């Protein structure tokens, strides 16, 4: 039987210390359940509210693109320098050591290639496997205005419903079809739709004109993709402007793994995202790190 001897009445009720009623550090996430918040807190650093994600899921429709020929050689060594990894389950299982301990945002859609219609995707990972892999979030594209818009929204809704059941957030990625105009109006529409259907955070692109309206009009955090490879100074300036205008981080791929120094690039991005450094300051840091590594 349970030991009932010497049970003492409680004494320290903290009369002068009211319970913490501040809800949660992340935009739009105050009313989620504990598990959902715990996973979001592994994606977005609670001290800054931001994240540096490394995206290397490109192979699921692009094949072995430059920098991703051997994930085990090029990407695995970068893991310690990113906050989060974003990848396919095949890339993860085959090439990233579980000991890396990094949170993983799992690409959960597939079904197209660079040779076919990009918007024609399906949900390509069962929730059981996302749980088995310990994913902190799942991701799929919404292709607003594209031929398969309806199907892509249905994919993301399916992930949101199954993820919500188990406390796993979904990141909706605003995919852009070949004929889409990449402007603030388009991304404002796409990111807002993604948030309204229930995505806990959204991945979008930075645009020069009106990016702040996109972040203001989206009630959940936005992280930006990097897009095609740019000179490092330009990519860091874009990251700076995005953060300055309300983005909650980056989920960059080519501008990291195709950089002349991917580790220095991740450190420079972290300086922008977490330390409030400008693009120019971060580029100086990139050069310093690169010089040190080459010495
Ligand atoms: C796009 O479908 C993928 O999610 C990529 O991971 C994403 O576009 C980010 O990569 P990048 O910075 O190379 O654009």
UniProtKB/TrEMBL annotation:
Pfam families referenced in this protein's UniProt entry, alphabetically:
DeoC (PF01791)
**Which Gene3D superfamilies does the annotation name?**
Aldolase class I (3.20.20.70)
Molecular function (GO) terms for this protein are: fructose-bisphosphate aldolase activity
Is Plastid one of the keywords UniProt gives this record? no
Q: Which keywords, in A-to-Z order, does the entry hold? A: Lyase
What is the superkingdom listed in this entry's lineage? Bacteria
- Enzyme Commission number: 4.1.2.-
Q: Which PANTHER family match?
A: 3-HYDROXY-5-PHOSPHONOOXYPENTANE-2,4-DIONE THIOLASE, FRUCTOSE-BISPHOSPHATE ALDOLASE CLASS 1
* Protein name stated in the entry: Putative autoinducer-2 (AI-2) aldolase
């Amino acid at each position: 039987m349970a030991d009932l001897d010497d049970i003492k009445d409680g004494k320290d009720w903290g009369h002068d210390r009211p319970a913490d009623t501040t809800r949660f550090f992340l935009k739009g996430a105050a009313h989620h359940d504990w598990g959902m918040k715990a996973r979001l807190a592994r994606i977005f650093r609670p001290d800054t509210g931001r994240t540096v994600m490394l995206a290397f899921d490109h192979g699921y429709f692009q094949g072995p693109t430059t920098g991703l020929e051997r994930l085990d050689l090029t990407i695995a060594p970068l893991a310690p320098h990113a906050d989060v990894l974003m990848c396919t389950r095949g890339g993860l299982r085959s090439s990233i050591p579980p000991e890396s301990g990094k949170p993983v945002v799992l690409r959960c859609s597939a079904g197209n290639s660079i040779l076919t219609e990009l918007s024609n995707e399906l949900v390509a990972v069962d929730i059981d496997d996302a749980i088995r892999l310990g994913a902190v979030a799942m991701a799929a594209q919404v292709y607003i205005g594209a031929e398969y818009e309806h199907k892509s929204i249905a994919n993301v809704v399916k992930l949101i419903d199954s993820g919500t059941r188990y406390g796993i957030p979904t990141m909706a990625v605003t995919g852009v079809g070949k004929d889409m105009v990449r402007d603030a109006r388009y991304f404002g529409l796409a990111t807002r739709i993604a948030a309204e259907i229930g995505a806990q955070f959204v991945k979008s692109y930075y645009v020069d004109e009106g990016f702040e309206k996109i972040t203001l009009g989206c009630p959940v955090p936005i992280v930006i993709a990097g897009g095609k490879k740019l000179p490092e100074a330009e990519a860091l300036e874009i990251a700076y402007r995005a953060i300055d205008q309300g983005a909650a981080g980056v989920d960059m791929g080519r501008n990291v793994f195709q950089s002349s120094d991917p580790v220095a690039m991740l450190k420079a991005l972290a300086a922008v995202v977490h330390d409030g450094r400008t693009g120019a300051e971060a580029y100086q840091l990139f050069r310093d790190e690169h010089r040190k590594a080459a010495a």
